[in-house]
Structures are given as C-alpha cells and as structure tokens.
Amino acid sequence: MASIGEEIKQKKFSSEYSKLMINVLNTSSWLTALQNTVFKEHTLTPQQYNSLRILRGQYPEAASVNLLKDRMIDKMSNVSRIIDKLEAKDLVTRKPCKHDRRQVDVKITEKGLKLLEIIDVEMTKWEENLHAISIDEAKTVNALLDKWRA
C-alpha cells in the first residue's frame, strides 16, 4: 500500500495538515473513480445517483428541488439539470407543487426504484474496496472527519 507521498510522488509537505488535505482530496478522487465504474454501466453520474437516493428516501412522497439541493453531497450540482436528465430516462417525474405553484415536486418512479435495487447490490460488492480498514477504524475516521468539518 502506497502512502500519499508515494502515490503522488511528493517527498515533503508543508505541514501534516497540508498532507491531510491532499490525502483526503486524493482519496475522494480514488473513491469517485471506483464509483463511476458502477454508475457508468447504468449511464448515471454520481450526482444523478445521489439525487435518486434522496428521492428514494422521500418515497412515496415527492421532494422539492430545494430539498434535493440541500441534501446533495456535491453542493455545486445543478439540480434542475440533473432532474431534466433523470426525467428523460423515466427515472423521476416532475410536476408543479399543489401548495406553491413556484415550487416543483420531484418523485422517483418505479423504474428509478428498480434501478437503485440493482445498483444497491453492485454497491455492496463495491464497498469491499473499503474493507482494508476495520469497522472500528471506519468509525474513527468518520468521527475525525465529522470533527474536522465542524
């Protein structure tokens, strides 16, 4: 297993915090690349997958575009465009909100739910990539990352 210094061929870092930041960014890129292999065969982007998962969590209720924006992992996502693409694939439906005509309600379709069931199986297998650390180590990393963002 290569250290971050070996991975990016850098011998010195300005500080341990700088090294940590680079390590987290590099690890994020590695995880995204691994996930993309799963999403690619279903012609989804990570943002589209994230949107579908949020909508499944709301199901059978609809979600507003603002709710999706607030809950997205990638805060720079163009949610309206993502919904356009998912609607074109018949994975979501969109209609005006009954209570607020300025708002749009988005709901996952049966086709979207079935696609997520298939991807869930693949993601469970994909998560084996993370088993290089124990459950206790994963809890520690999660706690440290939460603390870091706080």
Structural summary, described in words:
- The protein has 150 residues and is mainly alpha-helical.
- Among the domains are: 15-44; 45-116, Winged helix-like DNA-binding domain superfamily/Winged helix DNA-binding domain (Arc Repressor Mutant, subunit A, Orthogonal Bundle), CATH 1.10.10.10.
- It has seven helices and three strands.
- Strand 2 and strand 3 form a beta hairpin.
- The radius of gyration is 19 Å and the shape is elongated.
What's the structural blueprint in terms of helices and strands?
Elements: H1 4-8, H2 16-40, H3 46-58, E1 63-64, H4 65-71, H5 79-88, E2 92-96, E3 104-108, H6 110-126, H7 135-149
Antiparallel strand pairs: 1-3, 2-3
